[in-house]
Amino acid sequence: MVNLTIDGRAIQATKGQTILEVADANGIFIPRLCYHPALKPIGACRICVVEVKPGPPRPLPACATPVNEGMEVVTNSERVLKIREELMKLVLINHALECPICDKGGECELQDLTHALGVDQVDLEAVKLAPNHDYESLFVERHPDRCVTCGRCVHVCRDHVGAMAINFMHRGYFTELGSGQLPLDCEFCGSCIDICPVGALINKLWKYRARAWEVEKTETVCPFCGGGCTYELHTKNDRILRVRNEKSILLCSRGRFGFPVVEAPDRLKTPLIKENGEFREASWDEALDLVAAKFKEVAENAGPNAIYGVGSARATNEANYLFQKFFRQGLGSNQVDNPGRYTYIRALRGLASVFGVPQVSGVEASSAALLPYHSPLKLGAEAQGSGFPFVLGHFDDLPKADLVLVLGADVTPEMPPLGWKLLRALDNENCRLVLANPRRTKFDRYAHVSLRYKPGTERILLAGLLKAFLADNPEWTPAISATGLEELKESLKKVGPKEVSQKTGVDDALIKETAALLAQAQAPAILCGTELLAQDKGEQNVQALADLFLLIGKPGIPGSAVYPVAEKNNSRGVCEAGVMAEHLPGYAHLDEAAGGTPLPEMLDKLEAGDPAAPQALYLLGGDLLRAVPHRSRTEKVLKKAGFIVVQDAFLTDTAKLAQVVLPVTVHAEQEGTFISSDGTLGVLAQAIPAPGVRPDWQIINQLGEKMGYKLGAGHPQQIFRELAQSVPLWAGLSPKASYPLMPGTVSGTFIPFDVDLSLPGRRPYTLIVGKALNHSGTFTTHAPDGTLKLMSEATLQLNPEDAQNLGLSNGETAKVISSQGEVSLPVALAPEMPAGVVFLAEHFAEPPVHLLTLNSNLVRVTIQKG
Amino acid sequence: MIIPLLKGLATTLRHVFTKPITLQYPEEKRQVAPRWRGHPELTINEDGGRRCVACTLCMVVCPSNAIKGIEAAEGQEHEKYPVAFTIDLTRCIFCGFCQEACPKGAIKLNNLYELAQYEKSLLILDIDRATQKKSELRMADWL
Lengths: 866, 143
Ligand code: SF4
Ligand code: SF4
Ligand code: SF4
Ligand code: SF4
Ligand code: SF4
Ligand code: FES
Prior knowledge:
Number of domains of chain B: 1
Number of strands of chain B: 5
Radius of gyration of chain B: 22 Å
Number of helices of chain B: 3
Distance between the termini of chain A: 71 Å
Distance between the termini of chain B: 58 Å
Largest sheet of chain A: 7 strands, mixed
Bound molecules: iron/sulfur cluster, FE2/S2 (inorganic) cluster
Oligomer: heterodimer
Largest interface: A-B, 12 and 14 residues
Structural class of chain A: alpha/beta
Radius of gyration of chain A: 28 Å
Shape of chain A: globular
Helix content of chain B: 10-25%
Strand content of chain A: 15-25%
CATH topology of the largest domain in chain A: Rossmann fold
CATH topology of chain B: Alpha-Beta Plaits
Structural class of chain B: alpha+beta
Number of domains of chain A: 5
Helix content of chain A: 25-40%
CATH class of the largest domain in chain A: Alpha Beta
Number of strands of chain A: 39
CATH architecture of the largest domain in chain A: 3-Layer(aba) Sandwich
Strand content of chain B: 15-25%
């Protein structure tokens, strides 16, 4: 505690706070311009000057001066008032003064400040500067003549986004914000727009569409990745005009510019029924009656197991919960699963095999009046938990890690918030970043060690790391109580000394260096992404990674955790809500016999014409064709299912195979909850009406009614309560909080893993199918005004040397051939690709990338010109 | 008693020879003062374009919600201009606040005062009807 006085008022403050922070906390207003609470003090404008005693005779900037014991601060002496006024005049000297047409008008900090300081005349003159407007850049419009050179945008872009796309040019009065007079070529996250105190940076989607005071704000959750950013939708006349995150300002390009998907021209507006191979529009009653009749018929003739449900990582927890309830309680079968089977569930299963499934005790019913979206369970005095959820990290803790190992993830495209937190972790100069990826990614710039392994050799690399680590530290005892270390050591003996560097292509010295870093780390964190999960042996990959964490991890120390990327907004929630063949809500386990058929096995059964194969499919959204490897097979197999019902906002490729398509609301049009990748409960609020379409839960409920089931769903809040009642792990959970909230004990068993290379075939190139920064699954590819502008098609990312050998140049069409199929698409030269490895983003309908893949996101291909 | 009678007569006679003050309305129109507050309208430039930049300040300041539905668009030169603008004369109280708030001199109260209509809807002016036009009733020095 520090005691000081501000304007004669005695105040107590915490050490390390700045004068400005203390003044704000105590309701004393100090004018400021460049300071923003989300940034470190910049100290550029000096508007915040105050007199400080004891201290130097000159006034000090309040935003950058920490408080000290016995400090006397004067915020409004004649001298500082005069200084502020003069500074304001200098700021205004060349300001464009276009408030009537400036979109910042009404929320402009310069307007407010001019008003607060009472500056109404500028009696100074200076040479006029060229305005140098930038109308060219996508999504961002720049008006340097409105810039007050506060530096906020430069700082947010460099320190928080990590893009370093803008900086100041020239000096002094001629300082100008720029990117070398060229249009922006950056991540287009738009964070600079919203941090700008004035209208120098303008959001083009928002431009001229409303004045700041006209909008209604609705806080909701972003639906475009598992990061779960909370943001405000600004709406006017039932249209979304922009998206902002008032608190941290940060959002990614799809979060900020992806919202036009809500108004996409190809949104479905009425139910569709297929007749003679053609869809026709139908009324809700007709469509639901048809589905109910068909489901009843199938259930009567072939038993309830003949209807199979696929949940969705896009839908809310409530919809997914009700969906599995429809099957489990209504139909009486466990035939449900979700497409996370091909990615995220592999992470869960891999971690569960090492750290065990969640066990919770000491949870009791809460007696307090229940607020919306609060768990009806609370933590008892003795509440305890164990199992894998206790090694999963919260994003907010990541900055406390002192070593971060990133394996098989291009962090920013997969989950931008994880990238932002990683930058925060690197603020700590003792934090070490080990980046393992076949490609060069954004974070290579910050990495202390880069392990560029060959695609598909993750487990060999991990075996090498474990071996090197155990060789250096033969007496090592894990911080977590662990069994099976001897067996693991035994199994690692199979890996020859040269084998690792030979097969992975990573130098032994680098592996040794990494092992040494791992041994020193006090709070090691491990990040892994879909690049590693989407492989056919994704689960084993995670097992190997979990073994490593069991060896070096220190759960209990904040930051030391595993951070698997849950790709979609509710990838984690759909599993928690029980849309899994082997789990009820809250991971309550079903034994083998009782459990349903996992999705891949269901497809196998369909393909084999197994009598136990489903005869009707109920898909809760999500484009299976575009998400599951080996598309031609998936398509053939799905056609074998007699009757398919799809609930989706768009007529996706999968929906085109359906007999009935039911249009649903998207995030901005409904209430409900998502669980983000780090276990945070995000609450959706309805911002705009959705004529014609219905929320998922309502459709499921109505279908249930028509089939005579009593699902009893009346409102998302009530469904949430019912769901949370059966998830002890969520005890005490409330909006924006992360679970588990109870103390946990973590123990584990090392599981030996095989170290084969899972990439068969002889074709010369390895194709990695992955994620691009500007798209979220296939969802954002429906919005022509949204991020589709940033990336409108898939390109084959190819090393320039490879391209030269193939005779291909930028933009030319290449034919990519695998044993499964072939696609043609334009080439983009990408120096970040190693020789022999090519990359393709999977989001687009054309070309259908999964025509090439077999059972993994990796496949060997031949590339030809033409 | 004759004297008061003559006095009255004198007054009457005096007025017989002065100019009449009765205005033969509607044949004759009343000329109003330059500061007269008629109904608000959107003014135009020399080239005939509207001056308004759709800043909506008039809409914000209007105490009786007479200005509504201002919608903006972006022009060739990135300028902002209104594509929709409604002045509801059934609500207007002729206070002139809009004129005072407008940073562009784009909305002014003219000198028109014959506003009565049989149809109420005629008093709700859309952007075209709210835009200044030539009018016989207008004084030359109005702008
Ligand atoms: S949009 Fe994002 S990446 Fe681009 S300059 Fe602004 S902050 Fe930087
Ligand atoms: S563009 Fe905005 S945020 Fe950037 S320096 Fe200028 S005023 Fe500050
Ligand atoms: S897509 Fe992810 S990172 Fe981007 S705004 Fe949405 S939640 Fe945040
Ligand atoms: S004169 Fe007054 S009431 Fe009429 S439109 Fe203008 S501000 Fe509104
Ligand atoms: S205040 Fe003037 S410029 Fe602004 S909208 Fe009204 S008429 Fe147009
Ligand atoms: S706000 Fe302190 S220097 Fe700008």
